[in-house]
Specification:
9 helices, 74% helix
Length: 182
Amino acid sequence: MAIKKLNKLKGLKLDELFNAIFEQYKNLVYYVAIQIIKLPYLAEEITNDAFLSLFLHWNTIIDYSKIKPYLTSTAKRIAYKTLKDYEKENKIFDRKLDVENVNNFEKDIAPNDYRNLINKFKDYLAEEELDLLILRYYFDYKVKEIADEKGLNRFTVSSKINRGLKKIKQYYQNSESKNKNG
């Protein structure tokens, strides 16, 4: 969250503060959860659980700039635990991202531009490239934050982001060429 937004939060009442934080980070937390669990209804539950955890541990948050890392790491932890529990119970479910289910998710959690981006480039980019590009440009993560989040070297992340951008550029150049020729 930008410093200006953080400073605005300091004067809010507790319920207003949590609403503002929820509005700011709900899409990001959901995205983190859906990338791991691949099931929208479980990703919704994980999103709610991550914010509940923030509420329960609010007194340990001293610096507002720690809210984003807290929520994303909590969502990851809960999602991996949920996934592990499902696998332990031998429940079979398709772990491939079902874009139609994401499209049916509440409109305010998964914005149209996010869904359109996935639909447009899901066949053109590798899943990891798309994931990194969304984190970088949609959620404004820094390369270092992405590297830490994904457990990758920052140069690897930067390289994959650049490779994805080149593919997108090529996609648009090909589209432009077809429009001029066709």
